[in-house]
Amino acid sequence: MTTTLTVEGMSCGHCEQTVEEALCDVSGVTDASADHESGQASAAGDADVPAPAQAVEDAGYTATA
User: Fold this and answer.
1) Domain containing 7: what range?
2) For 48, how many CA atoms within 13 A lie in the half-sphere containing its CB?
3) What's the maximum distance between 2 C-alpha atoms anywhere in the chain?
4) What is the CATH number of the domain that holds 32?
5) Which intervals of the chain are annotated as region Disordered (predicted)?
6) How many domains are contained in the chain?
7) pTM here?
8) Long-range residue pairs from 11-17, CB within 8 A, at least 24 positions apart, any chain
């Protein structure tokens, strides 16, 4: 399953890396990607739906599924 999030606040490659690392730290996430230009991030795996969004929020960004 892949969860796609709209992420507000990413403005550069470093932001993308921060979001990807936050997503990869979620239990059940096997792969993550983020793109600041589109404002989207995705997490693949079997994590509970709110967990990836919460991880992005905890990293300092606004995320909506």
Assistant:
1) 2-64
2) 4
3) 28
4) 3.30.70.100
5) 30-65
6) 1
7) 0.95
8) 11/36, 12/36, 15/61
